[in-house]
Design brief:
It holds the Pfam family Abhydrolase_6. By secondary structure, the protein is α/β, with parallel strands linked by helices. The protein is 37% helix and 22% strand. The radius of gyration is 23 Å and the shape is elongated.
C-alpha cells in the first residue's frame, strides 16, 4: 500500500468554498479510481490562511498512475484551482505504508441473502444481492477450495450500481453438500451452475469464473450459449492438453500420492501472491474443503480439452490474468484468442489481491459487451 500527499493553501475566507470544490473534483476522482483505498482531507485555518493536506491511500503505484498519469510525482490540478490557491505543492510525495490498522482502514462488509437450491447431487448454497432491475444479472463461479465470499468485493460493487450479483458454491465447497456418488469432473460441476440457473429462473445472464471455475463456466456457457450473454474469466485454468503426455500423466499419478495434501498446500501458498492476509485466508479455505473435491477436479482439469470447450461458446469473452498466466497454453492464446488484460503484481486470486482492478475490468466488459 502507498500513501500520496499534497499540500495547498487558500485564503481563510475561501476555506469552505475550496473544500466544496475539492469534493467536486479531486476527492471524487480519487475515490472513483480503481485501486484507491481511501482519501483524507486535513485542514488547518489560522492567521488568515487555510492549509489543506490531502492524503490518499493506494493499492500500488499502478493504481496511482490510473489517477495521475505517467508522471505520478507531479500534482494534478483542476481548472478552478488557480482561483483559490495562493500557495501549492507542484510535486506530491509518495510513502510506503508498512502499517495501517483500525476502523478507518476496514471496509464494512455488506451482508447479502444466502439460501439453497437443489443441485444434481445435493443442495447448493448461494449468495444473492437481489435487485437488478432491467440489467442482466451476473453469476459468479469460484475456483477450487473457494466459496461465495471470494466474490464479496464484486457483489458489493455490483449491488452499489443496481445490478444483481449471484455467487454459487459448487458441490463439496463452502456450504454446499458433498455429492453422492462423488463426481467432480468439470462437466458435472457445470451441472451445478445449470441447477442454480434453473432454480432462480434466470433467463439470460453474464457468467464469471475463476481458475478451474472458469473452465466450469466455459462448459456451462457452451451448453447454453443463448442464455449466457458474456463470459468474464479471472485467471482461468490453462490448457493441460498442450503439456507433454508424460508430464500430464505424471501429474495425474501424483494426485494419488500419500503426500498429495502437503503438495496441494504448497501449490496454494505459491500461487497466492504477495499478500500475507490473502494467503492465510486461502489456506484456511483449503483446509475447510475436502481434499477429494480438490483432487477430483484437478484430475478432470488435466484431461479437459480447453480449446474444444472454448470453441463451443461463440459469445463475448474476456480474460483477466496474472503475469504468470500469459503463456502459449493460456486460455487467451488458444485458437483465435480471447481479449485479455494482465494485472501486474497479482497472484492467482486476482479478485482478492486487486478487487478494484477486477471491478473496473468487469464494468468495462459489461458496458462493452452486454449493455443491457
Amino acid at each position: 500500500m502507498l500513501a500520496r500527499t499534497w499540500r495547498g493553501v487558500t485564503k481563510a475566507e475561501d476555506a469552505d468554498a475550496y473544500l466544496t470544490y475539492l469534493h467536486q473534483t479531486g476527492l471524487t476522482h480519487y475515490r472513483r479510481t480503481p485501486g484507491n483505498l481511501a482519501a483524507y482531507c486535513l485542514r488547518k485555518v489560522e492567521d488568515g490562511r487555510a492549509e489543506f493536506l490531502l492524503v490518499t491511500l493506494w493499492e500500488s503505484m499502478d493504481a496511482v498512475k490510473r489517477f495521475a498519469g505517467d508522471s505520478p510525482e507531479h500534482a494534478t490540478f483542476f481548472p478552478e484551482d488557480d482561483r483559490y490557491l495562493i500557495e501549492r505543492d507542484v510535486y506530491v510525495t509518495h510513502y510506503e505504508v508498512p502499517f495501517a490498522e483500525g476502523q478507518a482502514f476496514t471496509r464494512p462488509r455488506v451482508e447479502f441473502e444466502d439460501f439453497r437450491v437443489a443441485g444434481p447431487t445435493g443442495d447448493l448454497r448461494l449468495v444473492d444481492t437481489g435487485g437488478g432491475g432491467k440489467t442482466l444479472p451476473v453469476l459468479f463461479v469460484h475456483g477450487l477450495a473457494g466459496n461465495a465470499s471470494h466474490w464479496q468485493a464484486q457483489l458489493e460493487h455490483l449491488a452499489a450500481r443496481g445490478r444483481r450479483g449471484i455467487a454459487l458454491e459448487l458441490r463439496g465447497h463452502g456450504g454446499s453438500t458433498l455429492p453422492h456418488p462423488e463426481d467432480y469432473t468439470l462437466e458435472s460441476l457445470a451441472g451445478d451452475v445449470s441447477a442454480v440457473v434453473r432454480g432462480l429462473g434466470l433467463r439470460r445472464f453474464v457468467l464469471v469464473g475463476h481458475s478451474v471455475g472458469a473452465g466450469v463456466a466455459l462448459v456451462a456457457a457452451g451448453e447454453s450459449p443463448r442464455q449466457v450473454a458474456g463470459l468474464f474469466l479471472v485467471d482461468p485454468m490453462t490448457d493441460a492438453q498442450q503439456l507433454p503426455e508424460a508430464q500430464r500423466e505424471a501429474f495425474i499419478a501424483s494426485l494419488d500420492a500419500p503426500d498429495v495434501a502437503q503438495a496441494v498446500r504448497q501449490d496454494w501458498a505459491q500461487m497466492a501472491g504477495p499478500r500475507a492476509d490473502v494467503r492465510e485466508r486461502l489456506l484456511a479455505d483449503l483446509d475447510a474443503t475436502p481434499l477429494r473435491a480438490v483432487v477430483g477436479a484437478q484430475r478432470s482439469m488435466a484431461r479437459f480439452d480447453l480449446k474444444a470447450a472454448l470453441a463451443r461458446y461463440p459469445g463475448p469473452k474476456f480474460s483477466l490474468v496474472a503475469p504468470d498466466n500469459d503463456m502459449p497454453r493460456s486460455l487467451h492464446r488458444l485458437a483465435e484468442g480471447v481479449p485479455h488484460q494482465v494485472v501486474e503484481g497479482a497472484g492467482h486470486w486476482i479478485h482478492l489481491d486487486h478487487p478494484d482492478a477486477v471491478n473496473a475490468a468487469l464494468d468495462a466488459f459489461l458496458t462493452r459487451s452486454t449493455p443491457v
